[in-house]
Amino acid sequence: MGALREFATAKGIGFPLLADEGSHVITELGLLDRDLAAHHAAFGIQTRDNQLGVAYPAIFVLDEAGRVVAKRIKENYRAREGMLKLLDETVGVALTPAGPQRRAGTGRVDITVVTDSPDYVRWQETRLHLIFDVEPGWHVYGSPVPDGYIAVAVDIEAIPEVAVKRVELPPTRPLRIESVDEDFQVHEGRFELRVPFAVNVPQGRGSVEFKIAVHYQACSDAECLPPATLLFELSLNEAAAA
Amino acid sequence: MTELDYSKIGPALGDQFPDFELPDSEGRPVSLQRWRRGRRAIVVFYRSAVW
After folding, report:
1. What is the pTM of this model?
2. Does residue A48 surpass a pLDDT of 90?
3. Which of A58, A139, A155, A231 has most Cβ atoms within 10 angstroms of its Cβ?
4. Which residue in chain B is spatially nearest to A83 when comparing CA positions?
């Protein structure tokens, strides 16, 4: 009990931390981790006897009626999700990203790049947002794109320990341009790309830099601008251990 | 190591999450349903506050 109280105080935790001594509730819920030794072994870790009562690293999101609306179980305790990402993806609660913002544009298109948080928590899945503002009357392309045009694309350069997942794009809308007699899939107005990533570094690595290149081509009904690339740099600090 | 089907572990999507009561960090009993009071909730299983 003392350990939980110290932990709650040290981390500034305001919600209840419960102790399941003997793992009775964990076991009744079917969550006793029977694969702990194998998972540890994969990381080269020896399992101690006092660790054998832990649950799978599980997160359950419940609705107002107490029903499970989302469930996340990871293979190991290291890979958890940032709260902004979890709330957004499970219950559609979109909190404002708090990371450093970078903004650039080429006249018809403005792009703001921001992370969920200014810090990274090692191994925690979090997100990079790329918010496009395309001037009315103009559009940029999604895939598939006809020959000679380029679709929106993002390249992210960081150390190998930064695990970047596939860029998530919003749906395009079809657009027929009569003057060139072609059908396109376009993005218009304000839309957002999201890139999930995790920083899987050992403790003490310090700040981690990102170089982000965003490629696109802005066109209107009447003309196309040359393809553009905007470059962004940002850096995330290692979250302070309490 | 075989791949686990995590969807089969613990309460399933759509299930009512079972109620339980456990002591908090001050030793007070906390029941999930009474604490929730009809609000949405997130239940997180963590390893330890020590190791």
Report:
1. 0.78
2. no
3. A139
4. B42
